[in-house]
Automatic annotation (TrEMBL):
Residue ranges constituting the PurM-like N-terminal domain according to the UniProt record: 42-156
Chief location: cytoplasm
Family affiliation: Belongs to the AIR synthase family.
Species of provenance: Candidatus Methanoperedens nitratireducens
Record's GO cellular component terms: cytosol
EC number: 6.3.3.1
Catalysed reaction equations from the record: 2-formamido-N(1)-(5-O-phospho-beta-D-ribosyl)acetamidine + ATP = 5-amino-1-(5-phospho-beta-D-ribosyl)imidazole + ADP + phosphate + H(+)
Name assigned to this protein: Phosphoribosylformylglycinamidine cyclo-ligase
Keyword Protein biosynthesis recorded: no
Subcellular location, record wording: Cytoplasm
One of the protein's GO biological processes: adenine biosynthetic process
Amino acid sequence: MALTYAKSGVDIEKENKAIAALARQLTYKRSGMGAPLTDVGHYAGLIDFGEYALALTTDGVGSKVLIANEMKRWNTVGIDCIAMNVNDLLAMGVEPLAFVDYIAISEPSDEIMRQIGEGLAKGAEMSRITIVGGETASLPDIIRGFDLAGTCLGMVKKDRIITGERIEIGDAIVGLPSAGVHSNGYSLVRRIIKSAGYRYGNPFPCNTDTTIGDELLIPTRIYMEILDAASRFDLHGLAHITGSGLMKLHRITKYGFNITDPLEPQPVFRFLQEEGGVEDLEMYKTFNMGMGFVVVLPRGEAMEAAKMLGGKIVGEIIDKGIYVRDLEIK
């Protein structure tokens, strides 16, 4: 039987309904300085700060930390934590400034915390941000192992905010490569590995010089080059492809995406699909499939932007729907 994200314990439709139920209760809005400039549901929340907007986003590493525990190697998950937050700021043209982390752990461990700190420090350097504080909670009755999350603060001039509202039919879509699975879909990943009878220390079949665990712990790419592109090109929309895969594109525009020449997914995706018997549609609704970030801009600028960003033109904006070649992503 083909595995799915829902069968592995994460039902995106149920999750979205639950989030909507929560968001409906968040009715109070501050006025004046600090008033919200965006509704709940975009990549980051923006508030009024005079000439500027301050932006906040929060995210975590998710069940990827369980693989780190199995491998007893925790020095990359800090990069993931920062990347998941920073990339969401970049998806609105926001420059990241500062970060705070939150670690919930069953029992404090010097070695685990040292390695987490190593990754956080590396991610902060890559993102040009300062980690200004955080919180650690020992929760033996709630947590098994640990959970790692954080919040990132950014700033952008109000006239430089990129929300996707300027996207037009005919705009080009530029895809930027991911580093691999990044930090989403790991409930399905772990289910596939277990069902197929592998261990994370086994050689990775597509490259026996590494292990399955090492391949899955490759940290999330941080797309800081987006800020340079935003200063050079007329970017109409940006998307960070994470949980729910290409369905994330619904977040930035009412228009559709026709991806006729997608980036080639890394071998790890083929391995997971074959071992789990996962259908193409489910793969594109769960994983980034080799494309971790999407840039939408006028076709006349797309070739130069793609060259600068190290990506390629993968398609164009259409009236509605999301398509990868002839596959419709609902």
